[in-house]
Design brief:
Structural class: alpha/beta
CATH class of the largest domain: Alpha Beta
CATH superfamily of the largest domain: P-loop containing nucleotide triphosphate hydrolases
Shape: globular
Keywords: ATP-binding, Cytoplasm, DNA damage, DNA recombination, DNA repair, DNA-binding, Helicase, Hydrolase, Nucleotide-binding
Number of helices: 16
GO cellular component, one term: Holliday junction resolvase complex
Pfam families: AAA_lid_4 (PF17864), RuvB_N (PF05496), WHD_RuvB (PF05491)
Strand content: 5-15%
GO molecular function, one term: four-way junction helicase activity
Family: Belongs to the RuvB family.
Amino acid sequence: MSGIEKTEYSVPSQPPRREHVDPQAQQGEHEAELSLRPKSLAEFIGQPKVRDQLGLVLNGARRRGVTPDHVLLSGPPGLGKTTMSMIIAQELGTSLRMTSGPALERAGDLAAMLSNIMEGDVLFIDEIHRIARPAEEMLYMAMEDFRIDVIVGKGPGATSIPLDIPPFTLVGATTRAGMLTGPLRDRFGFTAQMEFYDVADLTKVVDRAARILGVHIDPDAACEIASRSRGTPRIANRLLRRVRDYAEVHGDGHIDLAAAQGALEVFDVDSLGLDRLDRAVLSVLVKGHGGGPVGVNTLAVAVGEESSTVEEVCEPYLVRAGMIARTGRGRVATAAAWRHLGLTPPDHALGMHLSEEQD
């Protein structure tokens, strides 16, 4: 027990809250997001390749007077896949019908939705990689032939009734394109890969959101919020709302650099966008295990979180930021992680020699 007491980290009594920098949509956030979402491709900030390619697909279909090909939007959460589906329907002047993969548990669930579709409508399925297999197999025929077979009855007396459906455009969104089956992926005529945003584009996102919210913000304050938003517009908008609260409580509502920095410090979002859980993982890895390698289950126990949370929510950004590396033996802290914690990295730290050459 004495050895445990001497370690420099401890298990927190409660899991660290990370709602501010979690790219997943939070409960009760839909209305706030809806007011900030752009309504057209021209208003959409960032993703220039996706906007140009999608514009060609939609304009070509309009010129020919046909329904556009089915669209697959792939990328991490919070980058605007749902917003893009709304823009597609808006650009086409049609209705948008929304559902999610987990909600389509049976083929009948999908059949009920498809039977109500009108010609030219856009059907948006979020997290389409989680759709149940029976519904997915029905979707094949609907996407290709605009027809579904509805099974009536059970057992030997079951009858298949063909049902024609009007031409429609399916927009599927996924955060895990690798989990899509080959037959489903091949039926999409256009696939777009959404990329993380740079600070310049995120600053524009913050400026636009501030105008919509009626908030006065200085350019350097907008840039500060953008630089801590982990390349994700949803996080940028969320942090802006928290900074607005801080500015209204501690000032006159005007957001300057000091207000932005003070608010982000209160909400435990550091200069790189890391929160308490991110820093706890790095601290365990560096201070508790000398930089690793350490298994993800060990890290999760040390910070008081589920291993899936550490692996799916925390790790992706730390890897992208160059703080940790995944190896066959476990997670390893890089020289950048040591420095971010204010420590001198050892000579064997990953990336140590590369950083010295850059210096």
